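Why do we bother with holo predictions? Because pocket geometry can differ from the apo form. Keep that in mind while you read this record for zinc ion.
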Amino acid sequence: MRVFYRSLRRSVIVYQQTRVAFCCAEMERQWGRLFSFGARDIVACTSRDVNLFVDRPQANGRTILELVPIQHCPFCGEAIETVREYRGQTRIVSRANRS
Ligand SMILES: [Zn+2]
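The structure, written out:
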């Protein structure tokens, strides 16, 4: 599976998903619900991982969203690659060699 993203220069650098090549139908079905690139329901954020969403109850009755990075699809086991796109070209950035 590959998730493509680009960086946006704001007051801090944030990352925005551009397109996704899904590994399996179940991952596609749960994308945006159980996990996605970055955080749930926002267009761009400082995370450039594919994250599992965990709602953490707080003492005040609200919940906060915890992001847990995942490296493999939990359904089919395929590795998840994040691919940074530059204007007109792409460069594969694995977790091992990115800074
Ligand atoms: Zn899969």
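The beta strands are 2-9, 13-21, 35-37, 44-45, 50-57, 63-69, 81-86, 89-93.
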